[in-house]
């Protein structure tokens, strides 16, 4: 019996399919050659496995790390809220976006099991986190914890 038939259809998640079955070499090649992509204002940064260390861990500012996927509905709801908060904060923190389908090593390092997952990192350490979409008032209260870091 071929090994591919032993995999249960439930075991093949979109992340498993993209990162382990479809094209891991292509994804790793893309991640290794792509630099961080920033928004026009510099507060939102798209990072890869290769750029995570320099963009997030070595950052002098607090960094909100948003682990997301393009196919994730809740991620699409949370993205505008986080982007607005980052722009309103006027440089108090950086929003780093990590696409789990393109960055399997970083996702595995932080044991991301669900998206969206948001980590607050400061001086290379995880200070706070949440999973899922928070209501705006609760998100604003959570973001206030960033002010305590400065």
UniProtKB/TrEMBL annotation:
The keyword Ligase does not apply. The record marks 66 as: Deprotonates C-terminal active site Cys. The record marks 73-74 as: Contributes to redox potential value. Disulfide bonds join 72-75. GO terms for molecular function: protein-disulfide reductase activity. GO terms for biological process: cell redox homeostasis. Residues 24-148 form the Thioredoxin domain. The keyword Transport applies. GO terms for cellular component: cytosol. It comes from the Eukaryota. The active site is at residues 72, 75. InterPro entries: Thioredoxin, Thioredoxin-like_sf, Thioredoxin_CS, Thioredoxin_domain. CDD domains: TRX_family. Keywords: Disulfide bond, Electron transport, Redox-active center, Transport. This is Mitochondrial thioredoxin (TRX) family protein. It comes from Andalucia godoyi (Flagellate).
